Known about the structure:
Layout: E1 2-5, E2 11-15, H1 18-21, H2 34-39, H3 57-71, E3 75-79, H4 82-85, H5 95-110, E4 114-120, H6 126-130, H7 137-154, E5 160-165, H8 167-173, H9 187-211, E6 217-223, H10 235-258, H11 264-269, H12 283-287, E7 293-297, E8 303-306, E9 325-328, H13 343-356, E10 362-367, E11 375-378, E12 381-384, H14 387-405, E13 410-416, E14 435-437, E15 444-446, H15 448-459, E16 461-464
Parallel strand pairs: 2-3, 2-13, 3-4, 4-5, 5-6, 6-7, 7-10, 10-13
Antiparallel strand pairs: 1-16, 8-9, 11-12, 14-15
Helix pairs in contact: 3-5, 7-9, 8-9, 9-10, 13-14
Amino acid sequence: MATLRFPSSFVIGSATASYQIEGGVHEGGRGPSIWDTFSHTPGRVENGDTGDVADDHYHRWQDDLDLMSELGLQAYRFSIAWPRIQPTGAGAPNQAGLDFYRGLVDGLLARGIAPVATLYHWDLPQALEDAGGWPERDTALRFAEYAGHMVEALGDRVHTWTTFNEPWCAAFLGYGNGMHAPGRTDGAAALAAAHHMNLAHGLAVPEIRRIADPSAQVSITLNLHPTRELPSVPADESAEARRRASAVGDRIFLSPLLRGHYDADLIDDTAGVTDWSFLHPGDEQLIHQPIDFLGVNYYSTSAVRFDAAVSGPERVGAWPGEPALEFMRLPGPYTDMGWNIDPGALEELLVSLHEQYPEMPLMITENGAAFPDVVERRDGVAHVVDTDRVEYLRAHFAAAHRAIERGVDLRGYLVWSFLDNFEWSFGFSKRFGIVRVDYDSQERIVKDSGRFVQRLIETRTLDVD
Ligand code: IFM
């Protein structure tokens, strides 16, 4: 048994996202988002679940902040629902929407919790999708305008801004394989969407810096695709498959954001899908804005190979230009999402990012696990003994600690998620929270994992075998 100590500057907190927890979809002048439309379309979301009520956080946010305070969270990463601010995606900001987030931020500050505000966690105003959505360049311009409104309203009190959460999911699951809203299946549109999200980030960052306090921290959060070798896949095939997966999975964002150009192999690999005419002269320079840290969301790993037998248009899905790329599940154990548990890959991912981009501080903006929790009532008091989640978190915090010891400038770790919530196309069937939500009564129960995070923050130490 060893005891690891985290530096006092290392921020430990938790995260959520607007559509996954807020509910109140018709309140405060909020307009419809693509997720309202998608979740109300039969067959799109498990059990026909929608975010109409979700955790009812829109009404219960003060109690939720009290719980965060009880757990001692140092930071809370939330996202702003664009359709609360601009119900049709354009024009003057909606006062009730601004007031909601101002109340939330003031409530956090009053409790000593640092707000980390994400501007886009997938709830595009439906009106902008009706006008073409992210495959349209104009959506990037609209995003920069919306970002400006938010920073005008909250720039004096929010110190940390994130432009996008996981643009890969928003572009490639939203427009590539249709698993996410808006549910389109068009590889060329998915690539254009990815570029316009990069561009939107590049246009928004200077806008944030122009308005916010000079000390504001600006970032973007990516979900990267760490892959491992499998003995059954020949080394040269594995290397080529991993190169291709990294091009359209990771470097499509990392390279323009952090180096100022799209990689030639990405353009070549996707040439059969798009001519990249959406990339205008000067775009790459616009995208390449200085940021203060890179947010990393990490959950799991996979292995990749080519399987010509499965090749064909139906395979284009989330990997445009890669119809024969096959993702294979690695050995377990697995979480309730069917994702393998591989904490070592978190350490390797952080070290590898640090080696490639040594000047770039990193922050784990999401890590956590879904498990089928059980509520036990003892002497009338409800408990969730989620030992599997506690051990998942322990192993991943230990991996983060090893990365710090190896020289990674890792600024913090935000556990996904604070509350059980609407897990996109899985609806409410998957529970990621460190706080349980009973969706009938809206009762909150702090799980053992919540107490684990509380102790970690209190003591700054972690016991590991
Ligand atoms: O719930 C999601 C979150 O919205 C984005 N990152 C992954 C989480 C778990 O799937």
